Amino acid sequence: MSQGNIESVLRETRTFAPPSPPPGAPWHISSIEEYRAKWKRSIEDPEGFWGEAAKGLHWFTPWSRVLEWNLPDAKWFVGGTTNICFNAVDRQVEAGLGGQAAIIWEGEPSGPAGPEVRRLTYADLQRETARLGSALKGLGVKKGEVVTIYMGMVPELAIAMLACARIGAVHSVIFGGFSSQAIVDRVLDAHSRVIITCDGAWRRGKVVPLKENVDAACSALKGQGHEVSAVVTLKRCGNAVTWTPGRDHDYAALTRGASETCPCAPMDSEDMLFLLYTSGSTGKPKGIVHTTGGYMVHMWLTSKHVFNLHPGAGQVFWCTADCGWVTGHSYIVYGILPNRVPSVMYEGAPNFPAEDRFWEIIARHKVTQFYTAPTAIRAFMKWGDQHPARHDLSSLQVLGSVGEPINPEAWMWYRRHIGRERCPIVDTWWQTETGGHMITPLPGATPTKPGSCTLPYFGVDAAIVDETGRELPHTTGGLLVIRKPWPSMLRGIHGDRQRYLDTYWSRVKGMYLAGDGAHRDKDGYFWIMGRIDDVINVSGHRLGTMEVESALVSHPAVAEAAVVGMPHEIKGTGIAAFVTLRPAHNPHDRAAAELLKKTLGEHVSREIGAIARPDMIRFTDVLPKTRSGKIMRRLLRAIASGEEKITQDTTTLEDFSILAKLREQDEA
Ligand code: PRX
Questions:
Q1: Environment class of residue 82 by beta-carbon count within 10 Å: exposed (0-12), middle (13-18) or buried (19+)?
Q2: Domain segments of the chain: what residues?
Q3: Lower CB count within 10 Å: N or C terminus of the chain?
Q4: For residue 280, what pLDDT is reported?
């Protein structure tokens, strides 16, 4: 998509009024008028609004100022000290509620007796985070140091995050689906010396060899002069692992002997809480920096309002994301636990052992809030209505969606077959950089429209502007920006001030550029239209096309590669790769070509992870380029989407015959 005025083709006119509240859980915000009044106040007096909100949480010492804003640097709750692990865990124990469930975990393997289920109380979490915190200190981990976490979805993953927060270490969680190369890049960038991992992770009945990947990463890091001093491994799958004496530690043995006395460290509100790497359009993934106080308040309040959480009302919250993504950080751990509603963690795949696993989980644990991604919803639709129909989903109160625009058809299916026409859907727009929800319905207040993330959350000044920062009239597409600071905003890109300025603050002066194109309809509702940069959103996860291209080019057969997004039935966007080969590697027949495509797909999986494997690879002698040598991605996008006629401007194309050639190969 180019900048300027973006043509929107989606016309959706259905509107759904907020339903009446579930028994025992009144809506926190119960009318659109109440929302509008509160929103107006939050924009006019952000310090008053957020200052009042923050008083709902525990601070060791109060702040002296709510906000200090020197564009583009925000400081929230200046001078205040707090600890997010204390607010998530210890606070509940101190209130005498240590026996209540905090995390309800379900393992993937499931036999005739059902799956393994673990219920961890706040007291359990306090003990376990204290033990691991003590153990990490014993390994020499200091306040402010980055601990890398690369685990499957086991409770110890949340415990590891919270233990870091407890002692003031910074965590960098790497999604367990990433390859060892991803670990190398992130560990190096963060100068991390300690890694917490598992022997393996269960995924669709198979074991993903996490420890093996860490070992490979450690060797590669050593080759680059970086020594990992400690690897702590939790035994989960029982797969064979090699052990490096002196460096490797067994999680169970290490924590068993560790002290349970490990008080939560008072952290400055602006101390770093975590680093989370996300893809950009150029270069290596960026380490997004999040700090303590503002993030904590924003997560707590959005969780409460957007999902309508009420402590002690028998609610059970389930977000299906992996903790390796921001959604898992914010809405499995940090937003939910301080609200004292149990958070469900599920270890495995949605279709293991069968396609109704999620509905079984909802029925088994009486889940009240269910938060998932459009890509998952499209898969459920494909698997068939009979799967949810077989299960009791009557406990559900609020449904959520996140990660990419949800197509109206999927929205309607979600409403009908999961929400049974009773549950409001909150389509939440936000990003790794924003930390928490930014544009979202409030379930008891906002009339919803399928496919729209509706209206901005409190304190969020979202707008659609052109390149000069001028607000565009409703119904005209443009750039989505945020014009005022918000508590959980990123504080930078780790180690790269310039990239922070360039990516978010340069294109439109004085405003945060989200990188999404969007428009507002006549009612002021926001409709996200997709990314404006070379980032593709595959299954709700961002991938830089550049990363996939570099992975392809690192294969000896590849001379040049261009990667673009293409429509994909389940993933929303799939990956199309146009590849030119080195002459010696040109396949002599179709079978050889297919084999090479498979090899390249596996190569990308190894380099980045399975989510980056191209859905389509096409060999071509040349790539369409401008006279200055820039690959014309929009042409490739049109070809990959199978557009009948190229209607785009091709005047800058250097060699017109290329288009015809690419099309010929299309038909071959
Ligand atoms: O393009 C938007 C899309 O996902 C991007 C953020 O990706 P990431 O940082 O990986 O975080 C995903 C989870 C918050 C956004 O720039 N996106 C996310 N949520 C929505 C969305 N697009 C439309 N509607 C949404 N609800």
A1: buried
A2: 32-83+273-531, 86-265, 535-664
A3: C
A4: 81
* Ligand 1 touching residue 326 (CB < 6 A): yes
For a substitution probing ligand 1, which of 542, 571, 573, 611 has the most ligand atoms within 8 Å of its CB?
542
Q: CA-to-CA distance for 387 and 377, rounded, in angstroms?
A: 13
**Band of residue 664 on the pLDDT scale cut at 50, 70, 90:** low
Torsion, CA 414, CA 415, CA 419, CA 424, rounded to 10:
120
Residue 668's pLDDT band (cuts 50, 70, 90) = very low
**Tens digit of pLDDT for each residue in 491-545?**
999 999 999 999 999 999 999 999 999 999 999 999 999 889 888 999 888 888 9
| Residue 87: Cβ within 10 Å count | 24
Distances (CA, A) of 11 to 4, 425, 446, 519: 20, 19, 19, 12
Q: How far is CA 607 from CA 46, 245, 323, 463, in A?
A: 44, 28, 21, 38
d(CA 42, CA 313) in angstroms, rounded, equals 28
pLDDT of res. 128: 98
Taking residues 231-259, what's their average pLDDT? 98
Architecture of domain 86-265: 3-Layer(aba) Sandwich (3.40)
Amino acid identity for residue 108 in this structure: E
**Cβ 429 under 6 angstroms from ligand 1:** yes
Instruction: Please state which of the four CATH numbers 3.30.300.30, 3.40.630.30, 3.30.479.20, 3.30.470.20 is assigned to the domain occupying 535-664.
Output: 3.30.300.30
Percent of the chain with pLDDT over 90: 87
Name the residue of 430, 440, 482 to mutate for ligand 1: max ligand atoms within 8 A of Cβ. 430
**Closest by alpha carbon to 314, among 337, 334, 340?**
340
User: Which tokens in the block code for residue 308?
Assistant: 């309508």
* 130 neighbors 166 (Cβ within 8 angstroms): yes
> Which of 227, 182, 193 has the alpha carbon at shortest distance from 550?
182
Instruction: Report the pLDDT averaged over residues 536-564.
Output: 92
Task: Work out which ligand 1 atom sits closest to the CA atom of 430.
Answer: 14
What is each CA distance from 577 to 547, 602, 619, 645, 654, in whole angstroms?
A: 12, 14, 8, 20, 21
Residue 367 near residue 335, CB atoms below 8 Å: no
Residue 649's φ and ψ, nearest 5 degrees, are -70, 120
- The predicted model scores a pTM of 0.93
Same CATH topology for 32-83+273-531 and 86-265?
Answer: yes
- Output the CA 366–ligand 1 centroid distance in Å: 28
Evaluate: CB of 258 within 6 angstroms of ligand 1.
no
Mean pLDDT of 583-591: 92
Is it true that the peptide bond before 350 is cis, omega within 30 degrees of 0?
A: no
CA–CA separation, 628 and 441 (whole Å): 45
State the Cα–Cα distance between residues 438 and 654, nearest whole angstrom. Answer: 42
Q: CA–CA separation, 132 vs 164, rounded Å?
A: 8
Q: How far is the CA of 514 from the centre of ligand 1 (A)?
A: 10
- Band of the pLDDT at 8, cuts 50, 70, 90? low
Q: Is the pLDDT score of 436 beyond 80?
A: yes
Whole-number Å distance, alpha carbon 515 to ligand 1 midpoint, is 10
Confidence band of 11 (pLDDT split at 50, 70, 90) = low
Strands (E), 239-351: 248-250, 267-268, 272-278, 286-291, 317-319, 343-346
Q: Which two tokens stand for residue 317?
A: 């919250």
Residue 288, ligand 1, Cβ within 6 A: no
Class of domain 32-83+273-531: alpha beta
